[in-house]
Amino acid sequence: MTKNKVRIQNAVTYGMVILFWVVIQVMDKTGHLTSLFKGLLVPLCMYAILAVSLNLTVGILGELSLGHAGFMCLGAFSGAFLTNCLETAVPSVGVRFFMALILGALVAGVFGLLIGIPVLRLKGDYLAIVTLAFGEIIKNLINVLYVGRDANGFHFSMKDTTSLGLDEETGVVLIKGAQGITGTPRAATFTIGILLLLLTLFIVLNLIHSRTGRAIMSIRDNRIAAESIGINITKYKLMAFSISAALAGMAGVLYAHSLSTLKASSDNFGYNKSILILVFVVLGGLGNMRGSIIAAMLLTALPELLRGLNDYRMLIYAIVLIVMTIFNSSPKAIELRSVVMSKLRGGAKKEVA
Amino acid sequence: MAADSKSVKMTDNPVKSGEAAGQTAGAGKAGAVPTLEVKNLSISFGGLKAVDGFNVVIEKGQLYGLIGPNGAGKTTVFNLLTGVYKPDTGMILLDGKNITGKKTIEINQEGIARTFQNIRLFKELSVLDNVKVGLHNHHKYSTLEGILRLPSFYKVEKEMNERAMELLSVFDLDKECDYKASNLPYGKQRKLEIARALATDPKLLLLDEPAAGMNPNETAELMETIRFVREKFSMTILLIEHDMKLVAGICEKLTVLNFGQVLTQGVTSEVLNDRRVITAYLGE
Lengths: 353, 284
Hints:
The structure holds two protein chains of two kinds. By secondary structure, chain A is mainly alpha-helical. Helices cover 72% and strands 5% of the residues of chain A. Chain A contains 14 helices and five strands. Chain A has helices at residues 2-29, 35-60, 68-85, 93-119, 124-143, 190-208, 211-221, 223-228, 233-256, 266-269, 271-284, 289-305, 313-329, 331-352; strands at 146-150, 153-157, 172-176, 181-182, 261-262. In chain A, the strands form two sheets. A three-stranded antiparallel sheet of chain A has the order 2-1-3, with helices on one face. In chain A, a hairpin with a 2-residue loop joins strand 1 (146-150) and strand 2 (153-157). In chain A, helix 3 (68-85) runs parallel beside helix 5 (124-143) and helix 13 (313-329) crosses helix 14. Chain A starts with a helix and ends with a helix. Chain B is α/β, with parallel strands linked by helices. Chain B folds into two domains: 39-111 and 202-284, Rossmann fold (3-Layer(aba) Sandwich), CATH 3.40.50.300; 121-184, no CATH class. Chain B is built from eleven helices and ten strands. Chain B has a six-stranded mixed sheet with strand order 6-7-8-3-9-10, with helices on both faces. Chain B has a four-stranded antiparallel sheet with strand order 2-1-4-5, covered by helices on one side. Chain B is globular. The model of chain B is unreliable at 1-29 (pLDDT under 50). The chains are: A mainly alpha, B alpha/beta. At the A-B interface, helix 6, helix 7 and helix 8 of A face helix 3, helix 4, helix 5, helix 6 and helix 7 of B.
């Protein structure tokens, strides 16, 4: 019975995303979309992917990570780098984008693993602080990284373009420090974003409802008991952390291909971004993937649609966060919700049907 | 009242049958390797000798009790046996194999499973999933197979569900399999913890105060369950308990710890009548 329930829940989540895609397509075809909203569509998907992937670390593994923007940054830069590198070798933008997605996820995943090994020994606040620092370190390192290519191969520098010592004729600077990567083809479309979101959901939801997912959640619920029945804590912690990082990397590649200029600025990949993603996760409910998507989409779309209230955005954020936290975890609120839900149940079923 | 007299009755019988079983087991398998053999186990925290020269031999199929006043070092012995602490000296042999100094997860894979004094369930997981986590190392498929939902996923999950339901029905928990573990009543949570430990298919089951916080009815029921588990799975069990009715009712042999040292050990009825044991519990 639980199994069927899980299946229905998952189907609703997938269905919601597909429905969203259909609605947007119809609105687009009938000309109801403003150009402002069109510009928001790819970021919407990106934030939804980021929120779902962070929820794997925070909600399922139960560890507070504030370095998610760092992994996204890694994915974005490695992906954009690959796309620009292979410009002549692989003419098709679509193929390059696809390769970039794989590379971005791989690089972020590997870094997630490397960073996870020392970091996951910490717990709670300490883990949050250290992941926050790692996110900043990644961003700042990329900010001073110069990479060029000429006939002799790749050149790296942490100083400036001239110190790359590129060949005059064949040299091309690929990553220009604080100026980032320019000229990435804007291949990311809403449809690709939705497909990636569905892929993320597929990976995360299937992972949670499998042997591995149970092991991860058992660590969250009681580490000592999990150990006593032979669960390899380190292995599953690292697995959840690096899968989460890899998916963030993928979202980064999507992001990189929606901009013509990619910079590792604080606006793009700073800790504020990490906290923003965490806000989506908390608002949507820990461990609740569907909630993460809804929260990410609403909170991304609303500030843009309500530009008039821009000055009060952070204020409203804070209030909404507090209210939602109470709504999600206060015993009284939970009681109230269950009463309301049981009353609505009859009506809700009809709606679904 | 009725339950009380019932449990008293139960106390009488098993002691005798237990004694008999203990003796025959001892005589019959004189040369056999004991399931657990602990030699001279010690650990100190700072200057305190928490466990000092602990020895015990538990034959296969025995139901062995470890008792002693508060702070005697009983739980520390469990933590040493399961690798939570590394002993300063001594040796732990499981089925004749030296497992001293191994990690907790390795010791579990060697065949020791335990429950906890303060219940440690996976609270947010369902009752069924709690047991399925216990089956983790016996029914395997890779993470990738799980994500891609390959046929092996469905096959192994089906096996796991069947095995888990089998275990749950032993403990009369099969109807609650969809409940969140934290929503079970206290007595059932204790049972679920035992079911989860059994799911790892151990050779030796360690129960840390299984009757703590239970009322006489629940304790009586628990005694039945422990006895049943031992019969059904032909399990060797070592348990810590303060409830003397339970100890006298089901344990064949006892070891009494006091201030980290073995005060006495032997057949239950003799140990419980030992002057020194009574003194240790009640004072001079």
